[in-house]
Amino acid sequence: MKMKSLLMICVAALAWPTLASAQDGDAQRGQDTYMRVGCYQCHGTDGQGNDAGPMLTPDTLPAEAIANFIRFSPGRMPVYPEEILSDAEISDIVAFLEAVPPPPDADSIDLLQNLEPDS
Amino acid sequence: MTSSSQSSSHKSDSSVGRRTFLKGAAVAGATGSISTQAAGDTPGKEVHGETPTGAAPPSAVQMSREASSAEELAQAEQVAVGVGPDQAGSFGSDFMVDVMKSLDLEYVFSNPGSSFLGIHESITVYANNEKPEFITCMHEESAAAMCNGYYKAALKPAAMMCHGTVGLQHAAMNIYNAWCDRAPMIAILGNHADAHARLGATTWRHSAQDPAAMVRDFTKWDDQPHSLQAFANSFVRGWKIAMTPPMEPVVIVADAELQLMEVEDRTSLQIPKYTPSEPPQGERGAVREAAQMLVAADNPVIIADRAARTPNGMTLLTELAELLNAPVIDIASRQNIATSHYLNHTRRSGQLIGQADVILGLEVTDFWGQVNFVNRESMISYPRTKDTVKLITIDVNDLYLKSNYQDFQRYAPVDLSISGDAEATLPALIEEVEAATSRSRRRALAEREDGMRKIHRSLYEESRRLAAQGWNSSPVSTGRMCMELYDKIKDEDWALVSVGASERFISTWPHRLWNFDEHYRYLGIGAGGGVGYGLPAAVGAAIANKKLGRFSVNIQCDGDFMYANGALWTAAHHRVPLLTVMHNNRAYARETMLVQGTANRRKRGVDKANIGTVIQDPNIDYAKLAEGMGVWSAGPIEDPDDLGPALAEAVRVVKSGYPALVDVVTQMR
Question: What's the whole-model pTM score?
Answer without folding.
Answer: 0.87
